[in-house]
Specification:
Four copies of one chain form a homotetramer. Chain A contains 15 helices and 19 strands. By secondary structure, chain A is an alpha/beta fold. Chain A has a single domain, classed as TIM Barrel (Alpha-Beta Barrel). In chain A, α8 packs across α10. Chains in contact: A-B, A-C, B-D, C-D.
Chain lengths: ~375, ~375, ~375, ~375
Amino acid sequence: MNEVEIGLTKRAIRGYSFDDVAVVPSRRTRDPEDVSVSWSIDAFTFSMPVIAAPMDSVMSPETAIAVGKLGGLGVLNLEGLWTRYEDPSSAYEEIANLTEEDATEGLQRIYAEPIKEELITARLQQIRDAGVPVAGALSPQRTQEFSSTVLSAGVDLFVIRGTTVSAEHVSQNREPLNLKQFIYDLDVPVIVGGAATYTAALHLMRTGAAGVLVGFGGGAASSTRAALGINAPMATAISDVASARRDYLDESGGRYVHVIADGGLGRSGDIVAAIATGADAVMLGSTLARSHEAPGRGWHWGPEAHHPTLPRGYRVHVGVDGSLEQVLLGPAHSAHGRTNLVGALRHSMATCGYSDLKEFQRVDVIVQR
Amino acid sequence: MNEVEIGLTKRAIRGYSFDDVAVVPSRRTRDPEDVSVSWSIDAFTFSMPVIAAPMDSVMSPETAIAVGKLGGLGVLNLEGLWTRYEDPSSAYEEIANLTEEDATEGLQRIYAEPIKEELITARLQQIRDAGVPVAGALSPQRTQEFSSTVLSAGVDLFVIRGTTVSAEHVSQNREPLNLKQFIYDLDVPVIVGGAATYTAALHLMRTGAAGVLVGFGGGAASSTRAALGINAPMATAISDVASARRDYLDESGGRYVHVIADGGLGRSGDIVAAIATGADAVMLGSTLARSHEAPGRGWHWGPEAHHPTLPRGYRVHVGVDGSLEQVLLGPAHSAHGRTNLVGALRHSMATCGYSDLKEFQRVDVIVQR
Amino acid sequence: MNEVEIGLTKRAIRGYSFDDVAVVPSRRTRDPEDVSVSWSIDAFTFSMPVIAAPMDSVMSPETAIAVGKLGGLGVLNLEGLWTRYEDPSSAYEEIANLTEEDATEGLQRIYAEPIKEELITARLQQIRDAGVPVAGALSPQRTQEFSSTVLSAGVDLFVIRGTTVSAEHVSQNREPLNLKQFIYDLDVPVIVGGAATYTAALHLMRTGAAGVLVGFGGGAASSTRAALGINAPMATAISDVASARRDYLDESGGRYVHVIADGGLGRSGDIVAAIATGADAVMLGSTLARSHEAPGRGWHWGPEAHHPTLPRGYRVHVGVDGSLEQVLLGPAHSAHGRTNLVGALRHSMATCGYSDLKEFQRVDVIVQR
Amino acid sequence: MNEVEIGLTKRAIRGYSFDDVAVVPSRRTRDPEDVSVSWSIDAFTFSMPVIAAPMDSVMSPETAIAVGKLGGLGVLNLEGLWTRYEDPSSAYEEIANLTEEDATEGLQRIYAEPIKEELITARLQQIRDAGVPVAGALSPQRTQEFSSTVLSAGVDLFVIRGTTVSAEHVSQNREPLNLKQFIYDLDVPVIVGGAATYTAALHLMRTGAAGVLVGFGGGAASSTRAALGINAPMATAISDVASARRDYLDESGGRYVHVIADGGLGRSGDIVAAIATGADAVMLGSTLARSHEAPGRGWHWGPEAHHPTLPRGYRVHVGVDGSLEQVLLGPAHSAHGRTNLVGALRHSMATCGYSDLKEFQRVDVIVQR
């Protein structure tokens, strides 16, 4: 075990982030064209292992459709601007124009608007009409309230996403969501998280989830560590959750629960590191928020940013790198690693001699110092 | 042991600061409302494990009262501006207006004013009149001179705070304070420190102290390391002192001496890390100096900053983050981790599935790389 | 083994870069004049262990000749500006004048011009006429297409250089270069790379290569790590490849394959670190791009910078440090470690008491922390 | 052993600098007034363990005298401006006025002026007339040429100081200095260095040296690491040389050779770290160059800065912190750790409970992470 002694009464494990690890080519190379980056979960197959994060800066119904058409999975945030406002464009406009100083209070105010069930239905219908897989996300706090609306509207994949989601939530004042029963009762696959440890993930897998999101919102716009002292260095978290995947596969007699990296994926090299440490797919936020089509207008923020009493994220200016297609599939006209993300993954796999994602999880990695 | 070899003749232990550690959620989560952050020392119970540091930038009689009313413990510096000046407002004004270049010399001059015993009495009386627990602090150098005045005035808790306080001070020219005898003779609980090692803390515990302050003034305004080469990475120091607490509990047949983190607690995540590594409570300086009510007017400095011949601290500009209530209890309208400190602690404990502070000392922690 | 556990399912080796290591003088010192830095590969002997990188910012036919006359080996890029343009001066001019924003697209456009075989012949002839060793480089992708032209034109050393070159390239759509057969058929020594691991290098050595380039373009102008997640901390890579050199020497019954560090050599101290960890020679890019004679006009870029769909390098401004002679042989009139590179290597070897390069590979090294 | 594997063929030891280590107070404290910082070497006793470095920015005959009167040892550079120029004030003026760009070439030009033997004699006589211990320094390269002049003029301590000085210098073209014979023939104690390893120092001790300088010019103005790839993390170097001191003490039947830290001592905390890891005294450069009296006029540079072909140091602007007395003995009116250096050492020793320098070499140290 990679354990250190903090002091006489406390031990800790040592964690590694994407920045700490890199992959290492070896004796064989391949043509990038021969590499497959396709990914399947439940009955759905995607030509890239990319899920667009249910964040308002990234996903509108239109961008969810666009991501689907490019071969990935777009997930709409079902408790965000698109279900609070009939026409959220002025809310987006306002967010883009908030001063640095007023950003958090502005977000708190804009998100105080109630969620409308009919908008949940309408937004999902719009995506379904486009003929791409339909996916929507709720936080665990809202899942009980709105899940029946979501299911009536119809989704292909249902995402329950919070900073931390556990299989066992304890509450003295209300009946908490029984995740296992809830998933059992649904007839759509559920992706749930964040989780970042072997134990947390194993229990989530036992609820029947089809996929587990790894991470605690550790992305570009998060201050979870500063505010809560919680951190999950991503490379370690993914490897630990991948270990739970393997053990649960055995325990369940063959259920393969997908491990989806969610956070810290700002450059294509981070996506490489995520797969290399065990992820099956990645959920992307800030890189997609940088596309022309993203509704955020060059700004990026997550749901933690507008918590009414304890905001733990920022609205950050990310700018625009290119079209959604350029961001995902290229061509890149810059070397910063934020465009042609899928091409870079493919190229890196080819350079290391691998031909599919599952194999690439075994590539050799190096830690610098 | 986490030991390293500096060279052929020198070994060292490896220390970790709050920045190095983070807590890790696991399989269970909780509602923040179900979490208790209350803390008791001697006969006193507080609704939050927060002591306001006896620093002139933080504590006036009014802010000591305000902290008490919010559920924490305010400690007045009994050898600072409030006991040197009948009306310290012009001294505060002058400090706020010192140029960067003149700051240290200005502080040395302003603090050259003698301490008045009658002001000690008056300030403590003012706090007592407000009906909150009364606490005052002296440095070990001044304790013998002024303690009888303090005791006559009446305090509920007495704090002896220096950069380093040991159970055994040796002097060739004067009779040093016999801490054990002194504490024995008092009939109020004493909190004493800083200390940062198992041995130093164990000896302080044996003097009869009710609490030990951990740290050497390692906060935002300190240059102790640059000037003296002394350092105490806080996570390690707390864990080591917590080990002394456990051993002394056994040795004494049941005396539980409280471990109070004092230094480096600039964000709520640091408070989480302090409890997670073994602290019972925290003493806060710069974060409270950032409140509207703080007497420092947006500036922060400690007693080391005005040492007449060897200053080891700075007057630093910290600005204002919100009211004392917002800083401690929220709501936060920013994500920087400097407001709603207690709410963040509560939230972090809930996310990790813990329901009281004592249990939370056992939470899993991770070190990044 | 210097292995770390990233998580429960993933181990990694720990790598060190040139910045991490330094050499340590010991009990003996020497006069720098008594130190030999000469280097021989195949039938060629050089008075310095320096190869100029086949990059358009560094090498023109004239600078290849100049490096040869100073005692090193210049290698012309045979698929760069000099073989695409009859007179490349306006292309250089244009590159120097690109704005930061347009740099990558501009390079992509300028390098879209086809390669002309007759220019390959003419450029190599020009170098041969000057009486210095003739060396040219192709990427593995172009080697099959242009190697016969190169061989007809005549080279003394042939360099196959890509980000990653393996002994076994797999392709479903075309017959890949059979490196072993290719090298066997040639009657000139071949230097090939980059490679960065024991295994990759050992297989390259088995193809019959005379030298192996170590590194993945990790230099000043590269973003390989950000884009591809691939990294090769140079000190570790060199040491591992030196291990392959030793094992292959035994396996082959005496063939000594030269290990040439290629990347991260921005200061003379890095060259020292490269030899100290096992390199026989170094391939220099940015330091030579900083010479008056370099065709890049104060700018530096590599072939990755103009990849049509996945650029992984930048055009960076490096300025001018002095003449090629000053950069290589001094005298230095600055202390930045970018001039008198060979003098500094000689001085460092003398200070550590060594008299030739092969011995200096055994010098003691230290890692800071 | 604190050894790491750089790669398959290379191991390294891990080194620590002053920044990495800090001392840790324990169970006892003391009054600073009760602490002795006196230091004796050969027949000379100093009230502080401080040697002023033989650098032209630090030492003039006047400042050598002033340091002596304050209780330390001033060492004049006998091959610097004071022995090249009858009146060096215009040289100092010129150095202070060189532009950043011309600094190195300017120093090379100014130091091209030959050394005059009569000036060596005159400068040493001036110091002797003031009644303080007389010490002068030569580089190993100049020692043979000028030592007889120095000895005729009369010195109490003779310093041979270079970047690296070994007991065994090998030269093919000239008879090198036989250090052992040279020291044997002298009747004054010799301090010699830099050295940074056990082996190098042990051999220097065997030459009969009274003290060994530890370090390779690793100070504020040095670029030795960038240029030569040579580095000696100071805490490790001191501890290793202290180990040689102990072994040589045994081997020689009682000769105690002093270990003098030379380099990286920019703040009082570094001086603490130097003693704490085993040094007997410290040689100070940049901190003294910051005094009013220093001849450098707010600039600092070492002999490496004007090497004619391979400069490895910079002229850096350091400004002025106070009088020589304030720098060494206080009072400090700033918290940056660059004034009251001796007071800070005394205070740190007292805080850790130690009463003399030799004991303080055993203080507990901590490495942060």
